[in-house]
Amino acid sequence: MAKMWAGRTDGITNKIADDFNSSISFDSKMYKQDIEGSMAHAAMLSSCNIISGAEADRIIDGLHGILEDISSGALSIDENAEDIHMFVEQVLTDRIGDVGKKLHTARSRNDQVALDLRLYLREQTDEIIEKTVALIKTVTDRAEENKGVIMPGYTHLQRAQPVTFGHHLMAYVMMLLRDVDRLRDCRKRMNVSPIGSCALAGTTYATDRVFEAQKLGFDSICLNSMDGVSDRDFSLELMSCISVLMMHLSRFSEEIILWSSWEFKFIELSDSFTTGSSIMPQKKNPDMAELVRGKTGRVYGDLMGLLTVMKGIPLAYNKDMQEDKEPVFDACDTVKMCLDVFEGMIATLTVRSDNMRKAAQKGFINATDLADYLVKKGLPFRSAYKVSGQIVAWCIKNGEVLETLTLEKYKEFHELFESDVYEAVDLDVCVEKRISRGGTGISSVEEQIEYARNIIRE
């Protein structure tokens, strides 16, 4: 079949070359954006007297019909078409005749595809933000429920100091809030219209690019036509934002996997977000968290793939850039799916606060507070540190914890110890004494929760 672009060549290509060149299998996702962009283009052509008002009306009515038919399933997208742009234009011309051929005046597929992609990714960005905010709300709610639940805080995966589970969860909320901020910032640079850049050099027609951009909800237009058709920074930036978001989900997944193991048993995942073993009946596997962790690598690969495609391309448009869509579409689809499953997984997990507290007691994570107690009694910190370390070593050897050690034994290590030492090493007191802003004290966690809720309300 001869192509609509036949002229310089006969437009007849080898079947293998056709299949290799075709992008309809993935760019058909953008049919709605392609049609909406074409409607705005027809309106602009009419407003500039490049085509008549009657012609624009016929084109726009025809495009409305195509959009409705594709959306309802009455019209199937032809998989043999070269791309979604040529498919829509061919159907339009078949339906309304030669006037349909006027639609492509003062534009190229180069700026058309750039437009469609920006419109599509703008919607995807909004969806990802919405799903991330939903996850933030769920994690924040769980943090409030557990703002007084004591658990070990870790460094080097070694028990370090007491924190609350609510405080730990709010650390992820802060990460996710930054992700939303990055996505919103990315959207601003994405929301710039390339249409009217044409193939690379603009057009001889007296078009109104601002009119067309405003009809499509853009904030501004690309100010250099070569950049307009060859820029894919907006795709790369979105994929970079998604990669950071996936990294945060992966870190969270790793902790969920650890916490749900028998070795920790800090949480129990709902049966609805776990799987079993085919041969080991006792198993309850955190497959959803593991898949999120695994899919993070997939999203990183999407980003690196497009970075590699773009790194050596001269200006302006090159066919290499057809490779932009599959990775960015995949990254968007993957992160949305991960956010959905993650929100459900967090909402339904059970917190085993008893096990968290036992782990905190056995980990001597109040040893720093013991040293601080001696410092407040007048002992230099380094000396207090050494005494506390000696006490911990004795407790480990003799199966004791700081809370159960007798006052007489404390005094064997230093005469400054008095009965008030037990208050100093009480885990609840240790947590509540963390009064610095951002710390693990309950009032601080409440402040963090309020901050997060105010941000997402905005």
Sheet with the most strands, sense and barrel status: 2 strands, antiparallel
User: Total strand count, please?
Assistant: 6
Task: Encode the helix/strand succession as letters.
Answer: HHHHHHEEHEHEHHEHHEHHHHHHH
Helical residues, percent: 55-70%
Alpha plus pi helix count: 19
List its salient traits.
mainly alpha, 458 residues, 6 strands, elongated
Topology:
Layout: H1 15-21, H2 24-27, H3 31-47, H4 53-72, H5 84-96, H6 109-145, E1 150-155, E2 158-164, H7 165-190, E3 192-193, H8 209-215, E4 220-221, H9 225-230, H10 233-259, E5 267-268, H11 287-310, H12 325-348, E6 350-351, H13 353-362, H14 367-376, H15 381-398, H16 407-413, H17 421-424, H18 427-432, H19 442-457
Parallel strand pairs: 3-4
Antiparallel strand pairs: 1-2, 5-6
Helix pairs in contact: 3-4, 3-6, 3-8, 4-5, 6-7, 6-12, 6-19, 7-10, 7-19, 10-11, 10-12, 11-12, 14-15
Describe the structure in your own words.
- This protein has 458 residues and is mostly helical.
- It is 62% helix and 5% strand.
- The chain has a two-stranded antiparallel sheet. A two-stranded parallel ribbon has the order 3-4. A two-stranded antiparallel ribbon has the order 5-6.
- The mean pLDDT is 94.
